[in-house]
């Protein structure tokens, strides 16, 4: 799991992307069509639920459903398995998407470097 | 008349060498206290005075050493080695086992500091320099590693959520040539699994 860290700090320091910085490639590049992600839970709903900032992501609507389910079924703490699974699955998909974004950025950086090397060699 | 008596009484009090209530009433010392010759006295100047002082403190003349006479007010009180009671033999049958002291033994000037509950001069298992090196070496190493951690942070190979929050939605079948490793499904972003 540390391969990206070795790449970033040791072997490929110029191409490995830094997740703290903004990515430089156009999000539409290489895609036929791509929609922007949308929040389904509204600001007002999240404020009413008093969600902390870290939990206000694209899966917040599942989290709100889960919170409602837990509130309604208390003290049965085993009740909301389905809702929890939904939220977990959404978070998992989100994580995988983010991984893919990172990998996309990395491959585009490598490609850019290859093109520059070719241009120099020529 | 009463005024004169009162004045005499106050004078006797101010001169008072006495102990306790008896001093207030009669202006002289009770017989139950120490006699004047067993109390500490002035710095011994002649060898006879030194011998008398040693005898007073139950010490041998060759062991007796008063504090230097430089105005600090120790008088003839003996200067004993600055060792705490903790260093004394724990197995010997002391008269006062808790204090590790025998009756009549000369008391250190700072005896109340050197009792076993307080200051301890017993030697440490390792020398002071070794202790310093180990402690500060460890602290220095930890600080250095924290600094390295700040310079080269470890992160998951994912885009951070709140920076690139406007990530575009990807249709899954465009990416199906990527291998999505199922290991990563067990790692959640910090904050997403509070329960």
Automatic annotation (TrEMBL), chain A:
Keywords: Disulfide bond, Electron transport, Membrane, Mitochondrion, Mitochondrion inner membrane, Respiratory chain, Transport
Family: Belongs to the complex I NDUFB7 subunit family.
Gene it is expressed from: ndufb7
GO cellular component terms, semicolon-separated: mitochondrial inner membrane; mitochondrial intermembrane space
Compartment(s) of residence: Mitochondrion inner membrane; Mitochondrion intermembrane space
UniProt xrefs under InterPro entries: NDUB7
Organism ancestry: Eukaryota, Metazoa, Chordata, Craniata, Vertebrata
Domain of life from the UniProt record: Eukaryota
Protein name listed in UniProt: NADH dehydrogenase [ubiquinone] 1 beta subcomplex subunit 7
Protein's job: Accessory subunit of the mitochondrial membrane respiratory chain NADH dehydrogenase (Complex I), that is believed not to be involved in catalysis. Complex I functions in the transfer of electrons from NADH to the respiratory chain. The immediate electron acceptor for the enzyme is believed to be ubiquinone.
Membrane topology qualifier: Peripheral membrane protein
Automatic annotation (TrEMBL), chain B:
Recorded superkingdom: Eukaryota
Gene Ontology CC entries for this record: mitochondrion
Keywords from the named record: Membrane, Transmembrane, Transmembrane helix
InterPro entries attached to this UniProt entry: NDUFB8
Residue spans crossing the bilayer: 126-147, 167-187
Phosphoprotein in keyword set: no
Family matches, as PROSITE patterns: PROKAR_LIPOPROTEIN
Protein name: NADH:ubiquinone oxidoreductase subunit B8
